[in-house]
Specification:
about 90 residues, about 25% helix, globular, alpha+beta, 5-stranded mixed sheet, single chain
């Protein structure tokens, strides 16, 4: 199956791409797809804690609806990944 990922803020900068389409096996979760992506150590450290869990400050949206890392994906799903934004 294919899934489209779109990154925002710091995550986009660390990934080096705005969006990408990846191939995943059926039954893969959002966490599984993100954990399989190879954009370097800084990308992984921004998304994941040392335990491998997705950092709680990362916001996930699947097909326009808020999601959790455990959500199982389907072919053609669109996942947006947001990091916290600071400013004033």
């Amino acid at each position: 199956m294919t899934v489209t990922l779109t990154y925002f803020a710091q995550i986009r900068r660390k990934a080096g791409v705005e969006s990408e389409t990846v191939t995943a096996t059926d039954g893969t979760t959002v966490h599984g797809v993100l954990a399989a992506i190879q954009h370097g150590a800084e990308f992984g450290e921004l998304l994941f804690e040392k335990t491998g869990a997705l950092r709680p400050v990362i916001l996930l949206v699947v097909n326009g609806l808020p999601s959790t890392p455990e959500r199982m994906l389907r072919d053609g799903d669109s996942v947006q990944v947001f990091s916290p934004v600071a400013g004033g």
